[in-house]
Amino acid sequence: MPQPITSTLDSEQQRIAGEALRNTVVDLIDLSLIAKQAHWNVIGQNFRSVHLALDELVTAARDFTDAAAERATAIGVSPDGRAATVAQNSGATGIGDGWLEDRAVIETIVENLSAVIARLRERIDATEKADPVTQDLFIEIAARLEQLHWMWQAQVASA
Amino acid sequence: MPQPITSTLDSEQQRIAGEALRNTVVDLIDLSLIAKQAHWNVIGQNFRSVHLALDELVTAARDFTDAAAERATAIGVSPDGRAATVAQNSGATGIGDGWLEDRAVIETIVENLSAVIARLRERIDATEKADPVTQDLFIEIAARLEQLHWMWQAQVASA
Amino acid sequence: MPQPITSTLDSEQQRIAGEALRNTVVDLIDLSLIAKQAHWNVIGQNFRSVHLALDELVTAARDFTDAAAERATAIGVSPDGRAATVAQNSGATGIGDGWLEDRAVIETIVENLSAVIARLRERIDATEKADPVTQDLFIEIAARLEQLHWMWQAQVASA
Amino acid sequence: MPQPITSTLDSEQQRIAGEALRNTVVDLIDLSLIAKQAHWNVIGQNFRSVHLALDELVTAARDFTDAAAERATAIGVSPDGRAATVAQNSGATGIGDGWLEDRAVIETIVENLSAVIARLRERIDATEKADPVTQDLFIEIAARLEQLHWMWQAQVASA
Amino acid sequence: MPQPITSTLDSEQQRIAGEALRNTVVDLIDLSLIAKQAHWNVIGQNFRSVHLALDELVTAARDFTDAAAERATAIGVSPDGRAATVAQNSGATGIGDGWLEDRAVIETIVENLSAVIARLRERIDATEKADPVTQDLFIEIAARLEQLHWMWQAQVASA
Amino acid sequence: MPQPITSTLDSEQQRIAGEALRNTVVDLIDLSLIAKQAHWNVIGQNFRSVHLALDELVTAARDFTDAAAERATAIGVSPDGRAATVAQNSGATGIGDGWLEDRAVIETIVENLSAVIARLRERIDATEKADPVTQDLFIEIAARLEQLHWMWQAQVASA
Amino acid sequence: MPQPITSTLDSEQQRIAGEALRNTVVDLIDLSLIAKQAHWNVIGQNFRSVHLALDELVTAARDFTDAAAERATAIGVSPDGRAATVAQNSGATGIGDGWLEDRAVIETIVENLSAVIARLRERIDATEKADPVTQDLFIEIAARLEQLHWMWQAQVASA
Amino acid sequence: MPQPITSTLDSEQQRIAGEALRNTVVDLIDLSLIAKQAHWNVIGQNFRSVHLALDELVTAARDFTDAAAERATAIGVSPDGRAATVAQNSGATGIGDGWLEDRAVIETIVENLSAVIARLRERIDATEKADPVTQDLFIEIAARLEQLHWMWQAQVASA
Amino acid sequence: MPQPITSTLDSEQQRIAGEALRNTVVDLIDLSLIAKQAHWNVIGQNFRSVHLALDELVTAARDFTDAAAERATAIGVSPDGRAATVAQNSGATGIGDGWLEDRAVIETIVENLSAVIARLRERIDATEKADPVTQDLFIEIAARLEQLHWMWQAQVASA
Amino acid sequence: MPQPITSTLDSEQQRIAGEALRNTVVDLIDLSLIAKQAHWNVIGQNFRSVHLALDELVTAARDFTDAAAERATAIGVSPDGRAATVAQNSGATGIGDGWLEDRAVIETIVENLSAVIARLRERIDATEKADPVTQDLFIEIAARLEQLHWMWQAQVASA
Amino acid sequence: MPQPITSTLDSEQQRIAGEALRNTVVDLIDLSLIAKQAHWNVIGQNFRSVHLALDELVTAARDFTDAAAERATAIGVSPDGRAATVAQNSGATGIGDGWLEDRAVIETIVENLSAVIARLRERIDATEKADPVTQDLFIEIAARLEQLHWMWQAQVASA
Amino acid sequence: MPQPITSTLDSEQQRIAGEALRNTVVDLIDLSLIAKQAHWNVIGQNFRSVHLALDELVTAARDFTDAAAERATAIGVSPDGRAATVAQNSGATGIGDGWLEDRAVIETIVENLSAVIARLRERIDATEKADPVTQDLFIEIAARLEQLHWMWQAQVASA
C-alpha cells in the first residue's frame, strides 16, 4: 500500500529516521507516565519540591513526544503511542507500585532519565547521515533531558 | 501495612470511592493516549478541524486524570497510571494502528467517549453514599465528556 | 424521526431534563435582554453603578444560557432560543419601555431575578433523579443568581 | 413629556437618526439570537468550523448592538431591545426550529446577513445629512458585516 | 425586626444553612490567620517550601471565606467574621506563639485541617435537605481542603 | 519661512484644517485639566463613582489631544498646547476653585462637554471639503464625547 | 533562650522597632477583618460602591500586614497575628454586628482608619532613631492609609 | 463566468471600488517589501532608530494590505498580490540595491510614502459616490500613512 | 468655613506641607504640557529617540502630579491644577512656539528639569519637620526627575 | 568597494553561505505572497480551515525570511527582497489568478512547499562546511516547512 | 577636566554620596556573581529550593545594582562595575570553588548578606545629610536584603 | 575525589567540552559586565539608542551564561563565574574607566563581540566530535552574537 504522506528522504533514510523517532515517542510517553505516577505517589519531607519538579519533567516529556511524533509524520512515518505499545517497547526502566518515599523517587527518576538519554545518544549518531533535521531534534531533546538529569542527580549528590 | 495517608472516610467508603477513582484514572489516561494517537495519524479533508479538536480532548482528559488521581490520594488511596496498568485495565475501546481517515477517527472517538461515559455514570451512582465529594468530581467529568461526545457526534450526524 | 444526537439517558430522563433545560435557556435569554434594556435606559444619580452592575448580570445570563443550551444538546435535545420563542415562553417578569429611574430599575431587576430563581429551584428538584449532571448545572446557576439577587436587593434594603 | 437626555441635533435630525438606530438595534439583536440558535443546532461534517464561526458572528452582532443602542441614547433617543420588540420588528429573515445541517446553516446565515446589510445601506444614505456621526457608525457596521457575508458565502461558492 | 434581605428558603431551611455557613466563615478565617502566623514564624531547613505552601493555604482559606459569607448573605443571613467572634467560636485547633520548627508547623497544619474538614463533613450532611446550593459549596470546599490535607500529610508520611 | 513639514493639502485646505485642529487641541487639554481638577476636589456620597468616571474622561481627552495634535503635524501645522495658550484660547466653560460637591461636579462636566461638542460639530462641517481625513477624526471624537455627555447627563436626569 | 534569627540592630533598637511592628501587625489584621465584615453586611443605595471600595481597603491592609510582619522577622522579632491576640490588643475601634446601612459603614471605616493612623504617626516618631528602615515602612503605610482616609471621608463631606 | 461572491453594489460601483482596492493592495505590498529591504540594509549612526521605525511601517503596510484585500473580496472582487503583479503595477517609487546609509533610507521612505499617499487621495475622491464603506477604509489608511510621512520627514527637517 | 476633609497634621504643618504640594502640582502639570509640546514639535535626525523619550517624561510628570495632588487632599488641602493657575504660577522655564530642532528640545528639557528639581530640593528641606510622609513623596519624585535629568543631559554631554 | 559589514568567515565561505541565504530570502518572500494570495481567494466548503491555516503559513514564512535576511547581514552580505527580484528569482512554483477552490489551493500549497523544501535540503548540504551557523538555520526552517508540508498533504491524503 | 553630567549637590555632598554609591555597585555585582556561582554548584537534598531561591537573590542584586549605578550618574558620578574592580574592591565575603553542599551554600549566603548589609547601614548614616535621595535608596536596598537575610537564616535556624 | 555529577560522556569528551564551556561562561559574564558599564557611562547625542541597545546585549549575555554554565553541570563539570576568575581569564577586550562618548562605546562593543565570537568559532570546531549537544549550544550563541555584531557595526559603517 502506498504511504499517504510522502517524504523528501529516500526509503533507507526514512527507515532509519522513522524507526528512531517511533522509538523515541514510546520512551517519552513512558517517561511522562512514570513521572506522573511519581507525582501522585511521592511522600516524605521533600514532598513539595519533588511533586513540583515532577510536573516540569512531565511537561518536557509531553512536549518532546509531540515534537518527535510530528517529525515522524513529516517524513511519512506513522507514529504509534498507544498504551500497549508503550507497555511493550519502552526503553525506560519503570517505577514500582504504591506510595514511594522522596529519596526513592529521585533515584528512580535519575535511573529512567539515564536509560532514555543513553538511547537518544545512539540515535543522534544513527541519524547524522540519514536526516540532519531529525538529528537536530534529538540533540535538542538530549540537551534538555541531560539538564534535568543533573538537577535530579544533584538532589542525591554529596561533595 | 498502615497506609501513610489517612482519610476521614471509613474503610468501606474508602474502598468504594478509591476503586472508582483508580479505574477512572486508567480510563482517562487511555483516552488521552488514544486522542494523541488520532491527532498524529488523522488524514483527510477535515484534517485541520479534527487535529485541533483532538488536542482539546487531550487537554480535558489530562486535567481530569490529575483531578481523579489527586482525589484518590486525598482519601488515602494510591493511584496507578503506569503504561502496563493502562494497557490491561482500560475501559476505553481503543484505536487501530497507522494512518486513519477523518471520518473513521470521529467514529472511533465517539465510541471511546461512549464507553468511558457509561462507566462514569455507574460510578456517579456508586459513590453517592460513599463520598459526595468524589461523586461531585465524577459529575463534573461526565458533564464535560458528554459535551465533547455531542460535539464529536455532531460531525457525523444528519438531520 | 430518529434524533441525530444520542444520549446515555433513557427517554423519560431525557424528556424531563430536556424540558427543564429548554425552559432555562428561554428564561436566561430574556433576563439578558431585560438587563441590556435597563443598561441603556437607566437614569438617575446612581446611573454609573447600576449601568456597570447590569453588564455583570448580562455576562452571567449569557454564560449560563450557553451552558444550559449545550447541556441540552449533550443529552440529545435541541434548544430553542429564538426571539419569538423567548417573547412567548419566558418566565421572567419583563421591563417597561423608555427611560427608567435607577430605583425603578433595581426593583425591576430584583423582581425578574426572583421569578427566574423560583423556577430554577423547581427544576433542581425535578432533575435530581432524572440527571444529576443537569441538576448540578442548575445548582451552579442558582448559586450565582441568588448572589446577584442579594446584591441588587441590598441596594434598596434598609436595616 | 420633556426628554431626560438632550441632544445637539435638531428634532428632525434626531427623529431620522433615532429611528435608524432603533431599527438597527432590533436587527442586530435578532442576528445574534439567530446565530446562537445555529451555533447550538448545527450538525454535519463541518460542525466545528461552523460552530466556531457562528460565535464570531455573535460577538460582532452583540458589540454593534451596544454601539448602536448607546449612540441612540447619546442623541437622546431611548432604544428598545426587548424580546417582543425584536420578535415583531426585526428585518432579519429568521431560522427554522431544531437540528440543522451545516450547509443549510450557512445558507441561512448568508440570507440573514444580506437582509440586514441591505437595510443598513439604506440607513447610511438616510443619515448622511441628519447626523454624520451616526452615519459613520453604520459604515463601520456595514464594513464588518459585509466582510462576514463574504466569509460565509465563500463556504458555498464554487469557481 | 424584619430581615432586610429576603430568601427563597423557608425559615427552617434558612436557619440550618445559615448556621452552617456562619460557622464555616469563622473556621476559615481562623485557618487563614493560623496559616499566616506559621508563614511568618516557621524556621528550619524546609523553610522555603513550607513558607510558600502556607500562602497557598491562606489564599484557599480566604477565597472560601468570601464564598461562604456571600452565600450566607444570599439566603438572607448576616455573617460575623470579627476577630472576637473568631477567637471565641472557631473550631480550628490553633497554633502556638513564637518561632516554630518546620516539622512542628506541618503537624500543626495537618491537625487544624483535620478539625475543619470534620466539621465541614457534618455540614454537608446537615444541609443536603435544607439547601442543595449551600451543600454544593461545602462539597467544593471539602474537596480542596482534603487535597491540601493530603499534601501537608505527605510531608510527614513514610511508607 | 518655509514650513519644515510638507503636506498634500493645498494652502487653503491646510489653513482650514490646521486651525480647526489647533483649536481642538486647546479645548481637549483644557477638558483634561478640568476633569483632573474635579477628580481631586469632588466630595459627596457619590464621590467614588464620580472620581472614577472623571479619570475615564481624562483618558479620552488625553488620547484625542494626541490624535488631533499629530494630525496637525501630519498636515504640516505646528500645534500649540502650552498652559498659557490653553488658558487664553480654550472654548471650555471652566471649573471653580476648591472642594466641589458631586452634583455640582456633574453639572460642570455636562456644561463643559456641551461647549466642546458644539465647537466640534462646527469643525465637522468646516473640514468636510478641506480634508476628509481630519473630518473623520472629528467625527470619531464627537462620537465618544457625545457618549460621555449622555452618561454624565444621565446622572442628573429624571424621567 | 537565644533568638534563632539575628539582627544588625542592638537590643534596645530591636525592642523599640519590634514592639512597633508587632502592634502594627495586630492593628492591620483587625482593619482587614473589619473591612471584610462591612463588605458583607453593607446595605443601602450606595451598596455597590461601598462594597467594592471595602475590598480595596482589605487588599491594602493585608499587603501591609505582610510587610510589617516580615519586617519584624527581618530584625529577629516573632510577629503574633492570631485571632485572640488581635481581639485583645487591636487599636482599631471595631464594628457592630449584623446588617449595616451604607452611611454608617462609611462613618465606621473613617473612625477605624483615624485610630490606626494616629498610632502609626506615633510609631513613625518612635522608630526614627531606632531603625530608619522600619520607619520608612511606617511612612509608606501611613501615606496609603491617609489617602484612603480622604477617600472615605469625602463620601460623607459637604462643602 | 458568474462571480462566486455577490455584492450589494451595482456593477459600476463594484468596478470603481474594486479597481481602487486592487491597486491599493499592490501599492501596500510593495511598500512593505521596500520597508523590509531598508530594514535589513540600513547602516549609519541612526541604524537602531531607523531599523526599528521601519518595522512599524512594515506592520502598518501589512495590516492595511489585508484590510484592502478583504474589502475587495467583500464586494466580490478578487485581489491580486502576487510578486509579478506587484513588480509591474506598483505606484511606489522603489528602493536601490545593497547597503544604504540612514539618511538615504529616510529620504527613500519619505518619497515612497508621498507617492502612495497621493494615489490614495485620488481614490478617496473616486470612491465617495461608488462606495462610502471603501472610502472610509481609504481615509483610515491615509490618516495613518500621513502620520508616518510626518514622522519620517521630521527626521530630515530643519527649522 | 470649616474644611470638609480633616487631617492629623496641626494647622501649621498642614499649611507648610499643603503649600509645597500645591506648588508641586503646578510645576508638574506644566512640565507635562511642555514635554507634550516638544513631543509634537521636535524635528531633526534624532526625532524618533527624542519623540519617544518625551512621552516617558510625560508619563512620569502625570503620575507624580496625581500623587502630589492626592497627597494634598489626604492632608485636607484642595489642589488647584487649572490651566490659568498653571500659566501664572509654574516654576518651570517654559518652551518656545513652533517647530523645534532636536538639540534645542534637549536643552529646553534639561533646563526645565533643573528648575523643577531645584524647587523640589527646597521642599524636601521645608517638609522634613512638617510632614515626613509628604517629604518622602518629594524624595521619590526628585529621585526620578534627577534620573531623567541625567538621561537628557547625557545626550548633549561630551567627555 | 570594501564591504561595510565585516565577517569572521573567509571570502569563499561567505560567498557560499551568502548566496544560499539570499536565495532563501527570495523563496520565502514568494511563499508568503502566494499564501496570502490563496488566503484571500480561496472558496469552498473548507474555506474557514484553509483561510486560517494559510495565515499560519504566512507567519512562518515571514519569520524565517527575517531570520535568513538578518543572517545574511550578520556575515556581511546584503539581502535583496524587492518585488522584482522575487518575481524573477523565486524557486516557488507560484499560484494562478482569481478565485480558487479549496482543494486546488491545498494542492498548490503542497507543490510550492515541496519546491522550496527541496532547495533548502540542497543548501543544508552546501553550507555544512562553509558555515555551521547558517546550516543550523536552514535545518530549523526545513523542520518547520516539512511539518507544514505534512499538514497540508494530510488534507488531500487517503489511506 | 569638567564633569560632563552636572548635579544639584555641592562637591562635598557629591563626593560622599558618590563614593557610597560606587562602593554599593561593587558589593551588589559581587553578590549577584556569588549567588549565580552557588546557583550552579549547589548539590544536596534541598537542591531545588536553594537553586530557585538563589535566582531571587540574583534578581534583587541586579535590580539594585542598576538603581545604585543610575543614582550615581544622576549626581554626576561615573560608576565602575568592571570585573577587575569588583574582584579588588568588593566587601562581600566570597564563595569557594567547585560543587558545594546545600547547607554550606546557605551559610555562605547568610555570611555574604551580613557583610553587605553592615556596609549599607553605615552608608545610610553617612548620606543622611549629604543626600536624602541617595539615603532613601539605601534604606530600600537594606529593607529587601534584610528580608532575604531572614529567609536564608531561617533555613539553618532552630528554636 | 569522585565527581558528584556523572555524565554519559567519556572522560576525554568531558574534558574538551567542559573546558570550552567553562571558558565561555567567563567570556559571557565579562561581556555582560562590560555592556552594563557602557550602559551607565555612555554620553552623546545617541545616548538613548545606545543605552537601550546595551541592555539587549546584557540580556543576551546573561541568558547564554546560564545556558553554558548549566550545560557544564549537565556533563558533570563545575562552572566558575566568580569575579576574580572573570577578571583573570576573560577573552573579552575590556572597556575603559569613566564617561565614554557614544561612538567610542560602539567601537568598544564591536571589538569585544569580535573577540568573543572568534573564540566561540574555535569551540564550535573543537566540540564537534566531543559533544554535539554542546556544539549545538555554541552555534546558537554564535548566531545571536553575530547578529548583534552586525547591528552594532552597522552604526559605524558607511557605504
TrEMBL record, chains A, B, C, D, E, F, G, H, I, J, K, L:
GO molecular function, one term: oxidoreductase activity, acting on metal ions
Matching InterPro entries: DPS_DNA-bd (IPR002177), DPS_DNA-bd_CS (IPR023188), Ferritin-like (IPR012347), Ferritin-like_SF (IPR009078), Ferritin_DPS_dom (IPR008331)
Pfam short name (any one): Ferritin
Signal peptide: none
Domain Ferritin/DPS: 19-156
CDD domains the UniProt entry points to: DPS
Family statement: Belongs to the Dps family.
Protein's recorded name: Ferritin/DPS domain-containing protein
